[in-house]
Hints:
The complex is a heterodimer. By secondary structure, chain A is mostly helical. Chain A has helices at 26-35, 42-58, 64-75, 82-88, 93-100, and strands at 2-5, 8-11. Chain A has one domain (2-100): Arc Repressor Mutant, subunit A (Orthogonal Bundle). Chain A is built from 5 helices and 2 strands; from the N terminus they run ββααααα. Chain A has a two-stranded antiparallel ribbon with strand order 1-2. In chain A, strand 1 (2-5) and strand 2 (8-11) form a beta hairpin. In chain A, 31% of the residues are buried. By secondary structure, chain B is α/β, with parallel strands linked by helices. Chain B has one domain (15-129): DsrEFH-like (Hypothetical Protein Ychn, Chain: A), CATH 3.40.1260.10. Chain B has 3 helices and 5 strands, in the order βαββαβαβ. The A-B interface holds A 57-60, 62-63, 65-66, 69-70, 81-83, 85-86, 92, 107-110 and B 3-7, 35, 38-39, 41-44, 71-73, 75-76, 78-79, 82-83.
Amino acid sequence: MAIEVNGKSLEVDEEGYLANLNDWEPEVANVMAKADGTELTDSHWEVINFLREYYEEYQIAPAVRVLTKAIGKKLGKDKGNSKYLYELFPYGPAKQACKYAGLPKPTGCV
Amino acid sequence: MSEPWEDEPEGPVRKFMYVNRRAPYGTIYALESLEVVLIAAAFEQDVSLVFMDDGVYQIKKGQNTDAIGVKNFSPTYRALEGYDVEKLYVERESLESRGMTTDDLVVPVQLVDKDQLAELMEEQEVILSF
Lengths: 110, 130
């Protein structure tokens, strides 16, 4: 499977995650969101950029509980809660946001 | 039905100990152990890790895997704190006989000798050796 981004064809797995981490560019997130019927806002981007930084540092995609706690630490309590994150990413914050961020699916995660 | 953002009722919490005894690369054991540790932690179990024998190399600073073409997963051990996994034990003799000290490790650990390790093992409900 593949998705079209800026005229390039990028390989994805059966669940829509990028096959190659290095293929990612911001437009990838926009294309994936559009396919899910979502328009990305600054709030979405805050989480996506956070995930990319997390991966850069730890080489894994965080589990949802860990993501929620870490977001709370970095962006404040009003954002570090499951309700806020599920409203942004209704398919599961870690799962859907990681996909948009071009990361692998989190280990043992919703 | 509960909303997806509401916490699920807590299940039983068991004491799991993961014993890491092999070098990080060359076999899949170290990486697989780390994966199951992360899963157990995501399910909020009481997780502890032991590094002994060549397993102490798993958390050595300054790993570079470029030449062997596999991912350097040592940064992931530093994520364990965020998963509330803070019981990391290193068997003293294994570390010292390899010419290392705790300063050579990517994460803060507790040094234990063999007798202390035996006591810790006695307290566990599940012990998995990799």
